């Protein structure tokens, strides 16, 4: 669950000396324990739609591949 960062988390991000226009904290439950995290970023872009983390040859409108997927290898001629 995303939440506002605590004062301690804001201070932690501030120690880097870099400005972070986007600062978001989150809590997640899973397995044997809960974990907390902090996201500090220079910007944020929200793109709506389905994102596939594996290669699909045909994509319907509003769907896309994750940006880290490499394009398919082409056969050498």
What features would you describe in this structure?
The chain is mainly β and about 80 residues long. The chain has a domain at about 1-45. About 10% of the residues lie in helices and about 35% in strands. It has 1 helix and 5 strands; from the N terminus they run βαββββ. It has one helix at about 5-15, and strands at about 1-5, 20-30, 35-40, 50, 65. The termini are far apart. The relative contact order is 0.17.
Number of beta-strand segments: 5
Helix/strand order? EHEEEE
Q: Beta-strand percentage?
A: 25-35%
The largest sheet is: 3 strands, antiparallel
**Which segments are poorly predicted (pLDDT under 50) over 5 or more consecutive residues?**
none
The helix tally amounts to: 1
Q: Write down the overall geometry.
A: elongated
> Largest beta sheet: what is the strand line-up?
1-2-3
Q: Specify Rg, calculated over alpha carbons.
A: 18 Å
Mean pLDDT, nearest integer?
87
Structural class designation: mainly beta
Helix-residue proportion: 10-25%
Rounded to the nearest angstrom, the distance between the terminal CA atoms is 51 Å
Topology overview:
Blueprint: E1 2-3, H1 7-14, E2 22-30, E3 33-41, E4 50-52, E5 63-65
Parallel strand pairs: 4-5
Antiparallel strand pairs: 1-2, 2-3
From the structure above, extract its key features.
77 residues, mainly beta, three-stranded antiparallel β-sheet, two-stranded parallel sheet, 34% strand
Summarize the structure.
This protein is mostly beta strands. The protein has one helix spanning 7-14; strands at 2-3, 22-30, 33-41, 50-52, 63-65.
């Amino acid at each position: 669950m995303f939440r506002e960062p605590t004062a301690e988390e804001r201070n932690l991000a501030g120690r880097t000396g870099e400005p972070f226009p986007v600062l978001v904290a989150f809590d997640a439950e899973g397995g044997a324990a809960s974990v907390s995290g902090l996201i500090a970023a220079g910007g944020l872009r929200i793109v709506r739609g389905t994102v596939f983390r594996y290669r699909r040859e045909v994509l319907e409108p509003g769907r896309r591949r994750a940006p880290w997927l490499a394009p398919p290898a082409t056969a050498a001629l």
